[in-house]
């Protein structure tokens, strides 16, 4: 496997781990929002708009697609950051996570008219979303470091001593 494909693969896996941690934080912080701000978070809203769900409609299965899209986006973002040799340390990657949030919610999401610009969202929801992207970036970087370490140590080539003989 080439160095680039290794970084893409491990970055995608790290992005999934970061997304899992981010999602857990999102779920807990969402419960702490005031009742009037406790509507679905942006990943669910984006998915609903993209698949053509009408405002106020409750289409079955959209939540499942939102989870898949959320984790897929996290994996792609992790892979791209790793491939671009972004510094995979917690602090720079946490800032990179906020950069992913800003690039999305100040960039392509309103540009494609999927959601309103972020300055029109409630402040607490923006704080939640930008904060969980700090978590995504730092967990993604730590996971990437561990995966690279594992690749050089316990997954490195060596004798197969426990192999069953045929």
Mean of all residue-level pLDDT scores: 95
Helix content: 55-70%
**Helical region count?**
5
**Which regions contain 5 or more consecutive residues with pLDDT less than 50?**
none
Q: Which secondary structure elements does this structure contain, and how are they paired or packed?
A:
Elements: H1 3-32, H2 42-50, H3 62-83, H4 90-111, H5 123-152
Helix pairs in contact: 1-3, 1-5, 2-3, 4-5
Architecture overview:
Helices cover 68% and strands 0% of the residues. The chain has 166 residues and is mainly α. The protein has a domain at 3-38 and 74-152. The longest helix is centred in the first third of the chain and has 30 residues, at 3-32.
Key traits:
166 residues, mainly alpha
How would you summarize this macromolecular structure in one to three sentences?
The chain is mostly helical.
